[in-house]
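Hi P.,

Sorry for the delay on this. The queue was packed all week, but I finally got your sequence through. Input first:
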Amino acid sequence: MGQWESISAFISMGGYGQYVWGSYGMVLFCFICEIVGLVRRRQKAARELLMEARAHQSEEDL
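Then the structure:
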């Protein structure tokens, strides 16, 4: 593992592990929230476009 003597030493990061891993956790959480938000916005936009296309199609049928 390079400079670390063991896995537990790597995880504890010289006593700063809670801050290091907590920071990684928060960044991962933010990435996941961003991805979920983007997917939801994309789905909403697709639904709105489909509804608009159907409304436009029904107007042409009249």
